[in-house]
């Protein structure tokens, strides 16, 4: 049996740290949306955000809906415009709702910039972005998430929902992948 942990150079965020990050984010979100009188809709971005979404939402004691989208963004570094391809869309309207997009990691910023624009254009009352991880040094467009779990350096991470070639999502922690893993592919 292949030992996944052998492919991990170092643990960046332990299970304990991830729990604490989720609790802190949930507290901020709960404060922001308590007593708005509006519908609160979480839009979780598949697939990487699934584990984060499950842990975060169980700590938000507010009435809310959970929806999923699957998107990918394209655009060369030189083109800040880029575009977004929607592979799985919402089956409902978000008109008048407070929307919180849940993402695993922000890198260039393209995905969330485009997705938040798309949902705002559908008449949401507000659209905010919550990301577990942020790589601020990788930004290619002017984008800032509203709720950030942890800023990390420009390293490739896996685990806790994040994958490399669809593997490692089930690691309970976030780890830096050994470069030998992607150079041997
Ligand atoms: P943007 O549009 O901000 O896209 O460039 C963020 C998306 O890039 C992927 N990504 C990663 N996935 N480990 C991963 O498993 C990483 O270190 C990493 N950095 C970026 C991810 O799909 C995210 O949604
Ligand atoms: Mg992703």
Explain how this protein is built.
This protein has a single domain, classed as Rossmann fold, CATH 3.40.50. Helix 1 packs across helix 2. It is 23% helix and 31% strand. With 185 residues, the chain is an alpha/beta fold. It is globular, with a radius of gyration of 17 Å. It has a six-stranded mixed beta sheet with strand order 4-3-2-5-6-7. The site of xanthosine-5'-monophosphate has 16 residues, from strand 5, helix 3 and strand 8.
Task: Report a brief summary of the structure.
With 185 residues, this protein is of the alpha/beta class. The chain has four helices and nine strands. It has a single domain, classed as Rossmann fold (3-Layer(aba) Sandwich), CATH 3.40.50.2020.
Keywords:
185 residues; alpha/beta; Rossmann fold; six-stranded mixed beta sheet; 4 helices; 9 strands; 23% helix; globular; binds xanthosine-5'-monophosphate; binds magnesium ion
State the order of secondary-structure elements, H for helix, E for strand. Answer: EHEHEEEHEEEEH
Strand content: 25-35%
Q: List low-confidence stretches.
A: none
| CA(first)-CA(last) distance | 19 Å
CATH topology: Rossmann fold
Calculate the mean pLDDT score and round it: 94
- Going by helix content, strand content and strand pairing, the class is alpha/beta
User: How many extended strands?
Assistant: 9
Largest sheet: 6 strands, mixed
The helix content, as a percent range, equals 10-25%
Shape: globular
- The side-by-side strand order for the widest beta sheet comes to 4-3-2-5-6-7
CATH class: Alpha Beta
Which molecules are bound in this entry? xanthosine-5'-monophosphate, magnesium ion
Number of domains: 1
Report the C-alpha radius of gyration, rounded: 17 Å
Task: Give the second-level CATH assignment, the architecture.
Answer: 3-Layer(aba) Sandwich
Task: Count helical runs.
Answer: 4
